[in-house]
């Protein structure tokens, strides 16, 4: 045992001993770095194969391009990792059926569940049930009504989409406070639609504009065409339109063509490849679209793996995966469309 006395001479002697020891055994920062091992918060540690992770994935029916891209991206992401066993439930728009799918995942004792709910509120109780069973739930796109229902939530920025669309229109209309602005929303009962409309209204208000005409569709081509026909009949003059969804935008553009209207500019939403090609051509009313990432479920798959393996996100100092991740909502125009088109989804 080494006994250290408190006298000045002893302290000096001990200090000299430690200094010599440091000279003998000490490493330079470069040497330390060369011997550093990957951690669970490093890029190498994130990528390193770990224990097998069984992930259950359930989402709505892929009845339009964005949802199809969500499912495809999730599956493709899982295939990148040898330690992921992905169990995919059949897509459905029936909340009760989706509840039973999650219950089956719980019974199967999967390690994590990635869930894009048909209805966030309706799926909240069964998600809480999974969490209480010790199965982390990663909530994607449509938010649960209780924070207790998810370990991590991955969202597109719906409010930000509205803000981005509104700011673009404000800029393009050049401060003309007499301009007529129209909005073609998605499904009004969904919180995501409400958030998009709120962001749009707030952005327009900042430049002295408001929404003069508004209709809601249902995220389908047929619904977009019907709602737009109604809008155009009711509004003989329009300067700008924001359509929330590029899939329903196919019907929106068809209605515009049928009506022979071209006096306005139009902004889309979500960022489909066909919308971007229309923007790239620069010949029609569609001048921009706002990205709503179709990578959300893929991000959920990756985060589920990190959570189960007790890893962290390598670009963060925090040693745990965040509770909430909100993705960006950039505007795609003719100037930057080439950057976004390669990763866009097909409608």
UniProtKB/TrEMBL annotation:
Where does this one sit in the cell? Answer: Cell envelope
Protein family: Belongs to the bacterial solute-binding protein 2 family.
The record's PROSITE patterns line, in alphabetical order, gives: PROKAR_LIPOPROTEIN
One GO cellular component, as annotated: cell envelope
Keyword Lipoprotein assigned to the entry: answer is no
Q: What is its main location?
A: other
Reply yes or no: does the keyword Signal apply. yes
Pfam families annotated for this entry? Peripla_BP_4 (PF13407)
**Membrane-spanning intervals of the chain:** none
- Periplasmic binding protein domain residues: 55-311
| Protein name, UniProt field | Sugar ABC transporter substrate-binding protein
Q: Which GO terms describe its molecular function?
A: carbohydrate binding
| Keywords for this protein | Signal
